[in-house]
DNA sequence: TCCTACGTTGGACTTTGTCTAAGTCAAATG
DNA sequence: CATTTGACTTAGACAAAGTCCAACGTAGGA
């Protein structure tokens, strides 16, 4: 994530305080923030940053392949800076906690030709659902 | 789907023209309509039916286990009357076409204990993405 | 037939995200 | 450095999907 700013520059993108702050906020393990959460944290470092710019920058990071959009529920999209290692997600149905998981096996191989209906299948998302330790105890 | 009305009655639910119409609309193969699409079709049979009632009834059918909510994108939820046979979905990234698919293998078995982080995992959704024959040709 | 609790309705409201016009500024240029 | 310019940022209007509510209507039991 730290050389992200270089890559952006390499693409001829202008470096701004806003983009730097959004990139800084998106860092860590099992980070899956909504756009508004990113904005809330960005504001603590750069009070004037607007919601629109956060949306714009997140969209650019997704296009760049530095961040992945994750949709685990019908609420807000989540932005996942762990774009380097392919993984799937385990979601608590009650509190919404999200963990990265790395299942064995290849789900793409599990889809026979007869079940592809002529589609060119390029990607697969797997979402495991259940209750986290905290929520299961209640 | 035809005995749905019986089951509803068995649960002590009042039978109304609105609920009957929503149940009728939700029938067929590879049907994955949004709430507004269900409403649009329901209106042709019962012009006075309101959006709120469609949402209410769909929610009730989901609770009853007669219909499954499918979220393939961050647009509208889709309602799937094929709740009887477990299946997953294949989605065209361009036009949004949805097909039911039945992959081999069990993704739940592919998630080792060490990757469960103490969660009680109860369900898994798999979404295959790609291009349908029409969209791949363009 | 009458009652009433449950179902329905329209509209206001919320959440999430997009769009735009006007202002600002990074960085190329000399 | 100072200038210049088009890409970037901003506030706020707008849109789509869904929820909520108070008033009204009716299914089905007494
Ligand atoms: Mn992740
Ligand atoms: Mn389906
Ligand atoms: Zn939880
Ligand atoms: Zn298509």
Walk me through what this model shows.
The first copy, chain A, has 138 residues and is an alpha+beta fold. Chain A has two domains: 4-80, Orthogonal Bundle (Arc Repressor Mutant, subunit A), CATH 1.10.10.10; 88-133, Dna Ligase, domain 1 (2-Layer Sandwich), CATH 3.30.1490. In chain A, 33% of the residues lie in helices and 21% in strands. The first copy, chain A, contains five helices and six strands. In chain A, the strands form two sheets. Chain A has a three-stranded antiparallel sheet. In chain A, a hairpin with a 7-residue loop joins strand 2 (68-70) and strand 3. In chain A, helix 2 (17-25) packs across helix 3 and helix 3 crosses helix 4. Chain A is globular and about 50 Å long. The N and C termini of chain A lie far apart (37 Å). The model of chain A has no long low-confidence stretch (mean pLDDT 93). Chain A binds chain B through residues 71, 73-74, 77, 90, 92-93, 99, 101-105, 107-108, 110-112, 115-133, 136, and chain B through 71, 73-74, 77, 90, 92-93, 99, 101-105, 107-108, 110-112, 115-133, 136. The structure holds manganese (II) ion (MN) (2 copies) and zinc ion (2 copies).
């Amino acid at each position: 994530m730290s050389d992200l700013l270089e890559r952006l520059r390499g693409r001829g993108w202008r470096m701004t305080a806003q983009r730097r702050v959004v990139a800084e906020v998106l860092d860590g393990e099992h980070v899956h923030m909504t756009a508004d959460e990113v904005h809330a944290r960005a504001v603590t470092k750069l009070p004037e940053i607007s919601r629109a710019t956060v949306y714009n920058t997140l969209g650019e990071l997704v296009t760049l392949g530095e961040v992945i959009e994750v949709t685990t529920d019908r609420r807000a999209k989540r932005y996942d800076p762990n774009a380097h290692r392919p993984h799937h997600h385990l979601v608590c149905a009650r509190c919404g906690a999200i963990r990265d998981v790395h299942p064995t096996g290849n789900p793409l191989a599990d889809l026979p030709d007869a079940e592809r209906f002529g589609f060119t299948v390029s990607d697969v998302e797997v979402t495991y659902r259940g209750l986290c330790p905290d929520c299961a105890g209640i």
